[in-house]
Amino acid sequence: MEGKKQEEQEIIDHLNDENDEEQTTDENQAEVVEEDSEIDQIRKEKEEVHNRLLRLQADYDNFRRRTQKEKEADRKYKAQSLVEELIPVLDNFERALQVEVEGDAAQNFASGMKMVYDQFQAALDKEGVEEIPAKGEEFDPHLHQAVMQVEDENFESNVVVEQLQKGYRLNDRVIRPAMVKVNQ
């Protein structure tokens, strides 16, 4: 009988061991499922953070480019308000130099004024101010302001016949359009 009891006890122990293994396996599988769901969640969060980082980097690059363009425009056109104030002075200088003078003292004065005018013109050129070509050019409403139309057989249609007032631009921006007569 004792052999039978020992045999029964071994069978019970064996069944308990198998039951424990199944429970452990079930617990391990539950842990694996939990770990997998945590890993999936962490991957999703990582992907979201990565996408946010990419958008932020793109925003920063756009901001940097935009501020760079603004700085370039500021440098390029920094003298615009000063040039707008000086153009009428340049016009008056040119009118003064067209006056005929007589006598040595007046000639010396006129040549001194011409030197100052040339220096003034050179300073404006250095800043990027240039005269807009007009006479003989095709009329361009972006560069020229037509104040009169004439009929002249020496010029083709829509060509500037005469410049009444000089026009100027700073780099590629028109500061003042040239006032012109245009052939019909």
CATH architecture name of the largest domain: Roll
User: What is the string of helix and strand elements?
Assistant: HHHEEEEEE
Could you describe the largest sheet, including whether it forms a barrel? 3 strands, antiparallel
How many structural domains can be distinguished in the coordinates? 2
Silhouette: rod-shaped
Helix content: 55-70%
Number of strands: 6
The rounded Rg comes to 44 Å
Q: Care to describe what's here?
A:
The chain is of the alpha+beta class. The protein has 2 domains: 1-76; 77-183, Nucleotide Exchange Factor Grpe, Chain A, domain 2, CATH 2.30.22.10. The chain contains 3 helices and 6 strands, in the order αααββββββ. It has a 3-stranded antiparallel beta sheet with strand order 1-4-5. Strands 2-6-3 form a 3-stranded mixed beta sheet, with no helix packed on it. A hairpin with a 2-residue loop joins strand 4 and strand 5 (173-176). Helix 2 packs antiparallel against helix 3. 8% of the residues are buried.
Give a quick summary of the entry:
It comes from Halobacillus campisalis. The protein is an alpha+beta fold.
Key features of this structure:
3 helices, 3-stranded mixed sheet, 3-stranded antiparallel sheet, rod-shaped, Nucleotide Exchange Factor Grpe, Chain A, domain 2, 184 residues, 63% helix, alpha+beta
Map the helices and strands.
Elements: H1 2-76, H2 80-97, H3 104-126, E1 129-132, E2 144-150, E3 160-165, E4 167-170, E5 173-176, E6 178-183
Helix pairs in contact: 2-3
